[in-house]
């Protein structure tokens, strides 16, 4: 097992490396010269050359990459073009705001989706299955930013029970979960965010449970005299690797902070920041955010892999 | 609980007296099993009668789709309840299986009656170790501590002659060879001292050499533990090896039954004769193997007459009228064929 963990972790390194190359090349993939944003429009040829040299753009690409990587590894992502603040502060601030939402949305969504899917999978073809499957299809098909707007209209405009957008009057810096006046701002975004993965998780769980329930060993378990609950416990453990795979992906997406939902609720998280950075051509912020999110994805995948192999030892062999 | 056997017709009374007067461990009477879907009904088992005494091995012989596995599964009520219609009666050790409630059924399964399946790879849970799966059964029926259940699991692995049993306890099914997996399966089935063992083609998925080893092991354990056993197979050689009595099934009915030597040496039913003729034992390589022409009937649309009639070389007009009732040439020696009277008379003369 230890060897497997080591191997998986070593395998993550080239992936992380590849991701960093892609992030680095964003500067060149994005249309337009990155310097044109900083330089005044009437800059002389000498000035351009000077700046180019100062930023190191006159050096060969691999050298630039290594310099960039060296900075990144020491936590220096450069300055945001829009705010003139260090990118690392911008990114960690936005990520922690998104994390606040996901830390509530994920248990809610995964719990609900898993419970619905497991219930439906245990009774395939029955009324509860049709109900869950129907609800999941609706959930998957509804555009969630639309749902967010509808929730705002209902709870913020009609009933005036919850605030519509933002993080409260004091902003994100002094936001406290323990104060209701702040915490109430989270409710609508959390609920909307949570509804994104419920459908897909319910469907995956349902399919996995129903599939395992049809396997031969389930008959063996019943033939042993186990109660239906004990049989279901076996089935759930067997279906867990498949469910975990989807949960890992969904967790990664949610950490990226749905751009649409954070925009609808003007929640200053990673998704909101990404959209701002794209509009402002704020390449350093874009680079930093994407690099962080990709690393979260890589780490989540690693954790899912390890969990899967702990549940199903057959995965370790490949 | 209803321990009263269903009143039997005269022919069955003959069958009942055939083995002296000891109490039967299993009494199956007029068992029918149908699988009902919206589109169609499959008549998988169509009126099956048999009994098994304690310690006796009954082999149910038949090809795929003859209803032998279904019969076995019906005896533990392992068929999907919503789609399955079971009629008739099944009594095991005096318990009316079809009338048991959930709790009593759980006690019966794995306790009084155990089952071994054909494919040990898929029949064992892949994400639990062998030891855990055996211990789980022990805990379910005998209670006690986890440590005690594990100790019992080790004993059982040693009983079924798994080498390095202590190490194997912590192996997952995929880490064992097919033969060892089936031994582990047998250990699990025996863990709570069942009085009846149901074996559903337990050697079919194994290599020929391993097959023999597992058969010998099963036969030895069955004798040592005195379990009544119903052994389902399509392999005449396996049946010859292990059976006391053979019941040949065709299209959901038992068409012939009798002591193993009688059935294999002097088969009465044309189907059994065909089965025996189509096996290979030492005839010359040049000779073609005789096969039974045609294929088994469609169980969704069974005709009125003898189900084997369309493939039978000895068919008479009488065969198409109705399925022949069981006919006995001796006590416990039965076949369902119209030709029996003539044959028996000829033998008597």
Overall description:
The complex is a heterodimer of chains A (318) and B (349). Helix content of chain A is 76%, strand content 0%. With 318 residues, chain A is mainly α. Chain A has one domain: MetI-like fold (Orthogonal Bundle), CATH 1.10.3720.10. The model of chain A has no long low-confidence stretch (mean pLDDT 87). Helices cover 34% and strands 21% of the residues of chain B. The N terminus of chain B is likely disordered. Chain B is α/β, with parallel strands linked by helices and 349 residues long. Chains A and B meet through helix 9 and helix 10 of A and helix 3 and helix 5 of B.
Quickly count the helices of chain B: 13
**Total strand count of chain A, please?**
0
Q: Strand order, main sheet of chain B: write it out.
A: 6-7-8-3-9-10-12-11
Q: Percent of residues of chain B in beta strands?
A: 15-25%
**Helix- and strand-based class of chain B?**
alpha/beta
**Beta-strand percentage of chain A?**
under 5%
What is the CATH topology of chain A?
A: MetI-like fold
Query: How much helix is in the residues of chain A?
Result: over 70%
Share of helical residues of chain B: 25-40%
On the 0-100 scale, what is the average pLDDT of chain B?
87
Indicate the structural class of chain A.
mainly alpha
> In DSSP terms, counting alpha (H) and pi (I) runs of 4 or more, how many helices of chain A?
14
**CATH homologous superfamily identity of chain A:** MetI-like
| Oligomer kind | heterodimer
State the major sheet of chain A. none
Distance between the termini of chain A: 13 Å
Strand segment tally of chain B: 12
